[in-house]
Amino acid sequence: MARPGYRRAGRHDTGPGGPISHGTGPGGPVSHETGPARSRRRGAGRRHSRIRRVLRHRAVRAGLVLIAVLCCWAAFSVGQALTAPGGGSASSKLAEWARDHDLGPVVTFGEWLSYSPPKVGGTPGFSLAAPPSSLATARARASRSRAHAFQPIIPARLSSPAGAPLPGEGAWRVLEKVKGQPAVFGTYLRPDRVHTSYVAGIVSLDQRLVRFQLRPGAEDPGPGNWKAEPYVPAGTRTGLLATFNGGFKLNTAGGGFYLNGTTRGTLTSGAASVVYYRNGTVKIGAWGSEVRMTPEVTGVRQNLRLIVDHGRVPSAVNQDVLGSWGATLGGGYYVWRSGLGVTRDGRVIFVYGPALDVRTLAGLLQRAGAVEALQLDINPFWMSFEYYQAHGHPSDPRPVNLLPTQQQSAYRYYSVYSRDFTVVYAR
User: Fold this and answer.
1) 89, 207, 256, 419: which is deepest, by most CB within 10 A?
2) Which of these ranges, 1-15, 53-67, 284-298, 385-399, has the smallest mean pLDDT?
3) Cα angle at 70 between 69 and 71, to 5 degrees?
4) How far from 171 is each of 139, 153, 207, CA to CA, in Å?
5) Which of 118, 89, 99 is nearest to 327 (CA)?
6) pLDDT tens digit string along 248-261?
7) Phi-psi category of 44—alpha, beta or left, where left has phi over 0 and alpha has psi -120 to 50?
8) Which pLDDT band holds residue 21 (cuts at 50, 70, 90)?
9) Which of 175, 173, 195 shows the shortest CA–CA distance to 124?
10) What is the pLDDT of residue 143?
11) DSSP state of 235
């Protein structure tokens, strides 16, 4: 008879999981598993054995090494893109990286999922009225200078595509003067009768008083013997009047980039081209027929096809809108866009703003007097027009965004910038 508290070897107790057999083995007490637990352990053992057998194959090990190398390369490449100088949010840099690595359709699909069309109706969130003395002073000075050789060009007020104008809408204000003469004018217009809460900025620049310079971007077109900096360094800002964005990245622009003897991409016949000359002027036209390479050319920036040609808007602006005019933001027709044109009297017109399709952009350029014009870049992050106010510091003027709704800082071009742009100086 067993003493109290004594359990004989081999006796069965009952626990929460059922009978448990206690015994003694060579290494000490042995716990005998129930059927389900034993099956699970054996199954796990078989899986581990199969994994070990697979990993013994040389091809499998080589494939895993290759995957690891690709992951490391992708992480390094993405890290470089995110930390590259030149502006850009993390999301825009990731999108640019993906497009540069043949993942454009993935980016476009993601943008399409998140795209929201511009709202209908409403009123702008800021005043369109110019300071009351701005244009009056320019007209008075023009009147007094009629007897002199130089006659400033005062653009006529623009009618609003949205119908009855808001206070100040379409009225030009003087943004910059050169030698006391009005050189750069700006105004605002709502783009159409539907999207009435959105505003486009429009600029007129008199080439007799200003000169233009093309600048490369640190990433696009990238490093090269450009003989020009990818920003506006200190010491080169005296006389600085304005800056504005360039065109598409070169791999989607349908043309090339030329500056001071160096070319990136291919200067393509028929492509819409902004041509920069040694005397500081620019012309716009189709490459090879309306503009071409000469010894006086210092820069060429090509981007897509003309959207105003000989004063008319081609029917092509309504064809293949996604493929021809930019598939960013899911190919949304109404997005931020910018464009550049020239008038019959030689002035340069810059237009940019939200809620624009290609035809609306072309119509605004045409309304402002452009007879030749092209679309530049799209996507709100890259849009920019800045004018510069000396305020007693002519060597370091303060930049001001023309549109208060543009995304990046007005100081973007005072440090290394990733994309090409144009600089405007006083003559």
Assistant:
1) 419
2) 1-15
3) 90
4) 13, 14, 21
5) 99
6) 999 989 999 999 99
7) alpha
8) very low
9) 195
10) 59
11) T
Nearest residue to 234 via CA among 365, 372, 393, 366:
393
pLDDT band at 114 (very low <50, low <70, confident <90, very high): low
| SS3 label, residue 36 | helix
**Is the predicted pLDDT of residue 62 greater than 80, yes or no?**
no
Q: What does the DSSP assignment read for 150-200?
A: -----PPPPPPTTSSPPTTTT--EEEEEETTEEEEEEEEE--SSS-TT--E
Q: Which residue shows structure tokens 């931020």?
A: 336
Confidence grade of residue 188 (pLDDT, cut at 50, 70, 90): very high
Type of residue at 252: T
pLDDT digits (tens, 9 = 90+) for 397-422: 999 999 999 999 999 999 999 999 99
76's tokens: 């390094």
Residue 307, classified by CB atoms within 10 Å of its CB into exposed (0-12), middle (13-18) or buried (19+), is buried
pLDDT tier for residue 142 given thresholds of 50, 70 and 90 = low
Residue whose tokens read 């015994």: 23
pLDDT higher at 324 or 28: 324
Hey, what are 134's tokens? 């701005």
CA angle 328, 109, 338 (to 5 degrees): 10
| CB-based contact 414:232 (threshold 8 Å) | yes
Give every CB contact of residue 81 below 8 A, 6+ residues apart in sequence: 93, 94, 96, 97
Six-digit token pair at 356?
């624009």
CA distances from 100 to 103, 146, 247, 380 (A): 7, 55, 16, 19
Asked if the peptide bond before residue 221 counts as cis, ω within 30 degrees of 0, the response is yes
Q: Which amino acid is at 309?
A: D
CA distance 231 to 233: 6
Residue 180: left if φ>0, alpha if ψ -120 to 50, beta else—which one?
left
Q: Longest C-alpha distance within the chain, in Å?
A: 136
Instruction: Write the CA distances from 269 to 248, 262, 290, 297, 305, integer angstroms.
Output: 17, 18, 10, 16, 10
Element (H, E) at 64: helix 58-83
Length of the chain: 427
Element (H, E) at 398: strand 398-401
Computed from CA positions of residues 240, 228, 272, 417, in that sequence, does the dihedral angle turn out positive or negative?
Answer: negative
